[in-house]
Design brief:
mainly alpha
C-alpha cells in the first residue's frame, strides 16, 4: 500500500496557525480578508476562521505583492484583478527560485565549502 504524500496536510488551518506559518500578524490577516475578495476563509458556527490551502496561497500572493514588491493595498488589488494569472505565475516562479536558492545554500553549508559558495547568490 502506497503512503499518502499529503498525509500531513490539513484541510483547514486556524488564523493562529496561518499567522505563525507565514509570520504575518493576525490583525494583518483579518485586514487583508476585508480588502481582498480572494481571501475568504470559512467560519465555523463559533465564528472561528478556517483557512484552506487555497486561502493560504492567496495570502502568500498578497504578502509578496505588499511586502516584497512594496505595492500599496490598492496597487496589489489592481495587479490581482487586471492580471490574475500572470501575477500568480510570477509569484510561483519567484517562490520556486527562492526555494532553489535556499537548497543550494544548504548544500554549500553541508559541504562546508569556501567561496564562491559562501558568497551571497
Amino acid at each position: 500500500m502506497a503512503l499518502n504524500p499529503n498525509k500531513n496536510l490539513k484541510k483547514y488551518y486556524s488564523i493562529k496557525e496561518v499567522s505563525e506559518m507565514l509570520d504575518i500578524p493576525d490583525s494583518t490577516l483579518r485586514y487583508w480578508e476585508k480588502e481582498f475578495k480572494e481571501i475568504s476563509p470559512k467560519k465555523n458556527s463559533k465564528g472561528i476562521r478556517q483557512y484552506t490551502a487555497a486561502d493560504i496561497e492567496q495570502i502568500k500572493l498578497v504578502n509578496h505583492l505588499v511586502k516584497e514588491k512594496s505595492l500599496t493595498i490598492k496597487g496589489a488589488k489592481t495587479r490581482m484583478q487586471e492580471n490574475p494569472q500572470t501575477t500568480q505565475d510570477t509569484h510561483d516562479i519567484v517562490s520556486r527560485l527562492q526555494a532553489v536558492k535556499a537548497e543550494l545554500l544548504a548544500i554549500c553549508q553541508e559541504l562546508d565549502a569556501t567561496p564562491p559558495c559562501g558568497q551571497p547568490l
